[in-house]
Amino acid sequence: MSTHKEHICDVLVIGSGASGLSLALHLASTQKVMVLSKGPRNEGATYYAQGGIAAVFDENDSIESHVEDTQIAGDGLCNEDVVNFIAENAKECVQWLIDGGVPFDLDEDSKEDEPKFHLTREGGHSHRRILHAADATGMAVQTSLQDNVLHHPNINVLERHNALDLITRKKIGITGANRILGAYVWNRDREAVETIRAKFVVLATGGASKVYQYTSNPDVSSGDGIAMAWRAGCRVANLEFNQFHPTCLFHPEARNFLLTEALRGEGAYLRRPDGTRFMADFDARAELAPRDVVARAIDYEMKRLGADCMYIDISHKDPEFVIKHFPTIYEKLMTYGFDLTKQAVPIVPAAHYTCGGVMVDKNGQTDLEGLYAIGEVSYTGLHGANRMASNSLLECVVYAWAAAQHIGDNAAKAEIPPSLPHWDESQVSCSDEEVVLQHNWHELRLFMWDYVGIVRSTKRLERALRRIELLKQETHEYYSNFRVSNNLLEMRNLLQVAELMVRCAMARKESRGLHYTIDYPDKQEESGPTILVPDFPC
Predict the structure, then answer these.
(1) Rounded distance, CA 228 to CA 493, Å?
(2) What does the radius of gyration of the chain's CA atoms come to, in whole angstroms?
(3) Residue 409: how many CB atoms within 10 A of its CB?
(4) Residue 106 has pLDDT above 90, yes or no
(5) Using CA atoms, how far apart are residues 182 and 12, in angstroms rounded to an integer?
């Protein structure tokens, strides 16, 4: 008797962060939605987002200003239509979060019948337009969305389920126009591959910063959606632009604790070990320069001085103000022996955000019919060569809304596919060489940090590509002979995304935004997105 398990739904959402849960809630009144979460449902990048979400709520601000700031930060590579689309729909989509119970901070003079939100400012923004819940906005958004999902009868969340690969008509040999049919998923509790049939599949898997040795991201950020979409024949773009957050805590026991950009927005200084400030030497905006400028400046100063870290200092501000606005950071730092109100805190840059991804249109639809990608997994054109602070959660909720609208409009014409082939494990065995994966895992993340990090060169990129090709061969052999595991699936996906990152970086013969190469230090006069097309497009 077969032990294979099959699920059926209208919409399969792969990922349980802000974009995935928002889309599920938008659709659940008319569709049966299944949401996959690799681990616990809150173990994603959304939960750890500190700063906030950008939208024009201040009467002295304007959509035009939000658009202009985003384009400046994006260093000439933003898609203007997309930037306008997101900025114009920002307030309505953020209001949807508010109506759903997200407790954004209010101004002290706010009235109950006319709530006025406390808006902060972050790097690249010319106005205060960041709504936030103290310094734990992501936690507030994630918790609110989870509560709403938990009580909805049409949404089923499967925790500890990894998407393994997408199933398409072409993949299983059905003639005619190609489209998505569902996905194979790895049930980590049963240690078995299961099948999910669906009319539509939405990738909301987040980014790929786990490809780097040092990252602010949680362990689940392993580029799964990008790799799966590429294998299914979808184009990707701009994967050379990996944002390094300038200020992550430098401490041996704090592997990925981020110190929000809002600290600098509220007046924090960046200092050398001798206490002197340095950002004004690099940019007129000083500490409020965009993240690419700040990260390179910190990296430069560390290398110039041979220093292990730089420092962030807000101790010149009123202690009561600091504790009120940054309670989570304050309490966390105290556990490591740092008092944010009294001393400078050691920081280093760390991989933070994947600005490129799976190419989509304004509906979030990929090249493959029925397949959507929303949030950090996607390339919309919003971020260009560098993401402006607090535009990421905004992109999640706006594209969740847009994709849900498009899916809803097309749901009546789509059908749940017939029974799909089971995953074949008859020719594989259990591995007794897990150490091979661990070794390759550490090697990949280290050379990506060294060769494809904040500062690059052609030689470094070529070295990285050679190593990736060898590791891909080893991993493919391993994948072909042994049963799947969480580490194997993530290693396979990270290697694929690492290759795409390096290929994009090698194709860009200039330095722009987050991509800086010593061999091409200047910008080209004419530039556009870097687009990669699979050998076997969908």
Answers:
(1) 8
(2) 23
(3) 10
(4) yes
(5) 7
Q: How confident is the model at residue 1 (pLDDT cuts 50, 70, 90)?
A: very low
Backbone φ and ψ for 291, nearest 5 degrees, come out as -60, -35
Amino acid 82 reads V
Burial of 446 per CB tally in 10 Å (0-12, 13-18, 19+): middle
The per-type count for the chain, helices as H runs and strands as E runs, is: 14, 18
Alpha helices in 33-188 (DSSP H): 45-48, 63-73, 80-99, 137-150
What is the structure's pLDDT at 141? 95
| Structure tokens given for 79 | 């898609």
Distance CA 398, CA 137 (A): 17
Rounded Cα distance between 309 and 289, Å, is 19
Q: What three-state secondary structure class fits 488?
A: helix
For 423, the token pair is 């995953």
Q: Averaged over 485-509, what is the pLDDT?
A: 94
Of the pLDDT bands very low, low, confident and very high (cuts 50, 70, 90), residue 437 is confident
Residue 43 token pair: 């173990």
Give me 445's structure tokens. Answer: 């993340």
What the block records as the tokens of 332 is 């966390």
Does residue 356 surpass a pLDDT of 50? yes
Task: Answer yes or no: is pLDDT of 429 > 60.
Answer: no
Specify the higher pLDDT residue, 48 or 142: 142
Which helix (H) or strand (E) segment is 20 a member of? helix 18-27
| CATH ID of 6-240+355-410, from 3.90.550.10, 3.90.226.10, 3.30.70.260, 3.50.50.60 | 3.50.50.60
Choice between 424 and 35, residue whose per-residue pLDDT is larger: 35
CA distances from 72 to 126, 231, 383, 393, 524 (A): 11, 34, 10, 19, 16
Query: In sequence order, which residues have a C-beta less than 8 Å from that of residue 534 and are 6 or more positions away?
Result: 230, 231, 233, 234, 235
- DSSP letter assigned to residue 117: B
Instruction: Using the predicted structure, report yes or no on whether residue 431 has a pLDDT greater than 70.
Output: no
Residue 230 in contact with residue 495, Cβ under 8 Å? Answer: no
Active site residue 291: yes
Domain locations in the chain as residue ranges? 6-240+355-410, 244-352, 434-520
Architecture of 244-352 per CATH?
Answer: Alpha-Beta Complex (3.90)
Q: At the topology level of CATH, where does 434-520 sit?
A: Methane Monooxygenase Hydroxylase; Chain G, domain 1 (1.20.58)
Give me the catalytic one of 235, 291, 456, 460.
Answer: 291
